[in-house]
Amino acid sequence: MKRTLKSLSLLFALIMGTTTLVVAQTSEPKRVLPQSAVQVKLSYAPLVAESAPAVVNIYTRKVVKTRSAMFDDSLFKRFFGDQFSFGMPKERVRGSLGSGVIVRPDGIIVTNNHVIEGADEVTVVLSDRREFAAEIILADPRTDLAILQIDAGDEPLAILNLADSDSVLVGDIVLAIGNPFGIGQTVTGGIVSANARTQRGISDFGFFIQTDAAVNPGNSGGALIGIDGELLGINTAIYSRTGTSNGIGFAIPANMVKSVLRAALNEGQLVRPWLGIKGQSVTAALAAGLGLDRAGGVLVDEVYIGSPAAAARINPGDVIMAIDGKEIIDEPGLNFRIATLRENDEVPLAVLTEGFIQERRVALSLPPEDPARNLTKLDGRHPFQGVTVANMSPRFNEELQINSFRKGVIVLEVERRSPSARYQFLIPGDVLLAVNGSPVSKVADLDTVIDEAAEQFIYQIQRRGRVQECTVIPNRSFRCNTIR
Fold first, then answer.
1. Rounded-to-integer distance, Cα 220 and Cα 200, Å
2. What is the DSSP letter of 274?
3. Complete edge-to-edge strand list for the sheet that includes strand 55-66
4. What fold, for 165-267?
5. 37-41, 87-91, 245-249: segment of lowest average pLDDT
6. Which of 39, 178, 192, 206 could be 219's S-S partner, Cβ–Cβ 3.0 to 4.6 Å?
7. What's the pTM value of the predicted model, to 2 decimals?
8. Which ranges of 302-344 would DSSP assign to H, the alpha helix?
9. How far apart are CA 484 and CA 114, in angstroms?
């Protein structure tokens, strides 16, 4: 079919103009430059005085057990193993620092997951130097966000309201407030340098506000605010070759913070909405093949049967160009938009299919747990004794941070001193495909395919993207060959 859309500019004109994806015009205040010398001399001090008390310092402690250098020596371990030691291990305290933002008067604080990860104790210090022990309500490595709570009694707490981060424009003035290098609360200023920065490798839902406001180690978890005093984002990372600010900092947008905060306070468990597609970002090379004059959008490679995308008649080969009126540049951008929505939200998608732009309304749902995970620790006289396995499903795969389309039986844990721990018959992350010639699709299959009386065990696994066939003759030999 001859394509009728020759460029993305025309395509998005259709999205925003002639289809039902028209976004309601909002009356935003007009941004203007200073008009006089008096305006140039205006100060941010009142804004800082109102906002800074809601930004806290966070200190963490973790007790780490160590042995003497001799016992950590690799040659020593080679001959004597991990079990050989003299005396008790020594304990030392490892500390770290960061920042956080109070977002509710009952002591709810947002920070980065990497600030509190692995901590035994978390202490929050307010701007007035009061200190409180903090409880971790939710920690989400995928967004690098964590929700804490302190009990300040009847004392009022300053808070920052969360802004609509989609309203942020490049060039907007912003302030970064945090605790760089542990020297105490510090305020820096700058502008929004870029929006919707993706593929930074910082988190699974990479979609960041970039700023040139100076952000340094210790600022993580602190506030990026606009001139109205609302929280635009949580400062998370910097781009630097030296570890100090080079004028390129990244903040997690407030709209993602809202999603994680909602889960922490209402559901208690973070399960994100699901579209049910596997796709790839449309590069310049792909765009040329699709008849587009520039990169942009997500090309659908696969649609999960029974998913919201399938119900909305989205097919492999379609290109998702916009969601809820917001342009989609790449796959991380699509993932971000989906992650900020809720279960049962119905949103319009702009989909390029067979050369035409069409609107498809999709009702988001939670990923299904079908089959049930069925966590099982294998027992018996066979090579897999002491291995914990489970069924994969879209819901469980999301928790494991693996491809939601993968199916089968995954190895979760290997008991210490088990045969697999000793010889690596199976390791965490392996997917069992077959045992002794019988396919394995569910944990329940293992009850029938593992014959404890067998003289040898031949099984297939997928390990690190490759399929291997392994043969174990108990107490005699073990070998594996890559077959594809």
1. 16
2. B
3. 131-133, 121-125, 55-66, 90-104, 108-111, 145-149, 135-140
4. Thrombin, subunit H (2.40.10)
5. 87-91
6. 178
7. 0.78
8. 308-311, 331-339
9. 37
Closest CA to 376 of 418, 411, 420: 411
Q: Which CATH superfamily is domain 272-363 in?
A: PDZ domain (2.30.42.10)
Residue 168 has pLDDT above 80, yes or no: yes
pLDDT tens digits for range 260-303: 999 898 866 788 899 999 999 999 999 998 888 899 999 999 99
Q: Which amino acid is at 168?
A: V
Please, which pLDDT band fits residue 92 given cuts at 50, 70 and 90?
A: low
Residue 207 near residue 201 (C-beta atoms within 8 A): no
Catalytic site positions: 114, 144, 220
Under 8 Å between Cβ of 358 and 351: yes
Report angle CA 116, 122, 124 to the nearest 5 degrees.
110
Tell me the torsion sign for CA atoms 71, 76, 77, 80. negative
End-to-end Cα, the chain, rounded Å:
38
- Residue 331 backbone phi and psi in degrees, to 5: -65, -45
Architecture in CATH for domain 376-482: Roll (2.30)
Token pair for 122: 């978390």
